[in-house]
Design brief:
The complex is a heterodimer of chains A (about 270) and B (about 300). Chain A has 12 helices and no strands. With about 270 residues, chain A is mainly alpha-helical. Classes of the chains: A mainly alpha (about 270), B alpha/beta (about 300). The interface between A and B is large, with 68 and 54 residues.
């Protein structure tokens, strides 16, 4: 065993390196090749031609507009919610915790059906809105609501864990120096968690931008009103493949931007930690 | 009212069940929650980049294969979604007529099925709701020569939710401000037919203003014909353009219908053909034979399709 052990040791190393390299390469290729195929499928001329297609541009602007609003709502409501939620203990807190995570595991199509049977014109709550002359389903508002429902957990989870781990000593110091709870939150807690909150926000934005299932169920598919980029990809696939590919490429580029932003925000966090 | 209440209680029961289900996840979720924030954020990006690119693609091309592996005796039939209602009857009658052979329907908008076939999806038989898509696939050489045959036909009709809450009584009312209409995207055969019908109606009976007002009232262009019917039956829209067969085959009192005069209507002809890639050619030919036989045609008639040769 011993004499034979020294030579195979070398082999073992080489084999380990080869195996590790193969593993890394295969995972990388598996993830990167489909993206590369998208770019190879279309010529730059065709890409820029479809870029001026009104269906593509209206989907692009609608997507950006709705995702920005969704993100704004999630930040404005989600930040104080997450703070109050982590600082207070109240009955049913565990249930609320679970509910926050639910949209992460729920198929978006199910979320869309659920939103429709609640806010739809014949829905549980929607019928009363309808009596007041307010319709929600099949409007841009429905797109935003679907995005918020599906994407908010990314921000809420992040905010929750940031506030949970935030050293209470900072807040206590500020409070002993006479700052109000609100001022403490705005001047101490928020700035020190901003990097982490930012990366949560970017993830939420990305998820909102990619929302498909809930949108097509709850908001329908009307160019310029509810047809966001992922829906335009779906419709484009069935009629005009090059516009579908163009929008897909745009989404890939935006996704890359999102990843870079998350990286930058995450590295920024290290400075004050 | 009683029906509404029972519906409500069903929904409530659903919510309660959902919450109960949710609580079963409690242990798992709470234990993962207090992870440090940065590691929690890093693995998630993968989810987001995957979502926009893969969801539509999966919906468009990923559907056909998983349930059935093609083998002798089984027929995979890519079938226009408007045959959804009649498909179980067709399947059981086919299996009765040809013991030992079975058929699995993959139902979607013809335009989606066409894209799937062009991108290599496996199917034995293709049932199309549109001549132009059939011709396109024919030209590209996807069909076994001589197998493409007209199958049945269908007219366009307007359906309204039960009770007709908006009190729509004529095609003219469809142009009233505030009426919510659902129709198929123009890539869907039923959508193409609807656009043609509206143009003819505008030309013969109404006018261009009526036509543009109707389009202004459209709140959603759905990607299949049954999706329009669903939006109407839920009462989410006031009117929808679907095939006659959808109205005829639906249980009584599901919809109120407004018919479109024959001279303005659009007779959609369905075709059936065996695909070249089929490895199950015997059963595929049998299935086509069955669909064109008296028994298959009777099933289609029972579900509101028009016989071939309808004018």
């Amino acid at each position: 065993m011993k004499p034979s052990g020294s030579i195979p040791e070398r082999y073992r190393r080489t084999i380990t390196y080869i195996a590790a390299g193969f593993l890394i390469l295969s995972v990388t290729l598996y993830l990167a090749l489909p993206i590369a195929a998208l770019f190879l499928r279309i010529t730059p001329d065709l890409f820029f031609a479809s870029l001026s297609d009104p269906q593509v541009t209206s989907a692009l602007w609608l997507s950006l507009f709705t995702a920005v609003i969704s993100l704004g709502v999630v930040i404005l409501v989600g930040t104080p919610f997450a703070y109050v939620h982590t600082r207070c203990s109240y009955p049913g807190k565990v249930l609320v915790d679970t509910l926050i995570d639910l949209p992460l595991v729920l198929p978006p199509a199910v979320a869309g059906v659920a939103l429709l049977v609640l806010y739809g014109r014949a829905g549980l709550v929607g019928r009363y809105f309808n009596m007041l002359g307010i319709s929600i389903a099949f409007t841009t508002l429905a797109v935003i609501m679907a995005q918020i429902f599906v994407a908010s957990p990314f921000y809420l989870r992040q905010a929750k864990s940031l506030f949970e781990q935030f050293d209470p000593a900072y807040e206590q110091t500020a409070r002993t120096l006479g700052a109000s709870p609100l001022r403490t939150f705005l001047a101490i807690t928020l700035p020190l968690t901003a990097g982490g909150l930012g990366s949560g926000a970017v993830m939420t934005f990305g998820r909102a931008l990619g929302e498909f299932g809930a949108t097509i169920m709850f908001a329908g598919n009307l160019p310029g009103v509810t047809q966001t980029m992922p829906l335009a990809v779906y419709v484009g696939m069935e009629s005009n493949l090059s516009s579908g590919v163009t929008i897909s490429i745009l989404l890939v580029i935006i996704s890359f931007g999102i990843m870079i932003a998350v990286r930058l925000l995450a590295s920024k966090k290290v400075q004050h930690a | 009212m009683e029906r509404l209440l029972s519906k409500n209680s069903l929904i409530l029961i659903g919510i309660v069940c959902g919450l109960l289900l949710a609580t079963t996840f409690l242990a798992g979720c709470t234990s993962t929650a207090p992870q440090s924030p940065t590691p929690a954020a890093t693995p998630q990006p993968v989810v987001t980049t995957a979502a926009p690119a893969s969801t539509p693609a999966a919906a468009a091309t990923g559907t056909p294969k998983p349930t059935f592996t093609p083998s002798q005796g089984n027929v995979v039939a890519f079938t226009a979604a408007s045959l959804t209602g009649v498909s179980p009857t067709l399947a059981s009658d086919f299996e009765k007529a040809y013991p030992g052979e079975t058929v699995v329907f993959d139902l979607d908008g013809t335009q989606a099925l066409k894209t799937q076939v062009e991108n290599g999806a496996y199917a034995d038989v293709f049932i199309s709701a549109s001549n132009s898509y059939t011709n396109a696939l024919s030209k590209e050489g996807y069909f076994v020569n001589g197998t493409v045959k007209p199958l049945t036909s269908n007219y366009v009709i307007v359906i309204l939710p039960a009770g007709n809450p908006r009190n729509i009584t004529s095609l003219a009312d469809l142009a009233d401000p505030g009426v919510k209409i659902a129709m198929e995207d123009k890539s869907v055969p039923a959508g193409t037919a609807t656009v043609a019908v509206l143009a003819k109606l505008a030309n013969d009976t109404y006018n261009a203003d009526w036509n543009s007002s109707v389009f202004k009232n459209v709140v959603s262009y759905e990607t299949s014909e049954p999706a329009v019917a669903t939006k109407v039956s839920l009462g989410e829209v006031d009117a929808g353009f679907v095939y006659e067969s959808t109205y005829t085959a639906a249980p009584k009192n599901t919809y109120v219908a407004i018919t479109i005069p024959k001279k303005d209507n659009y007779l959609q002809t369905y075709t059936i053909g065996v695909l070249k890639g089929s490895t199950s050619t015997g059963p595929a030919a049998d299935f086509e034979k069955f669909m064109l036989s008296a028994a298959g045609q009777q099933d289609l008639l029972d579900f509101g399709f028009r016989p071939l040769g309808t004018s």
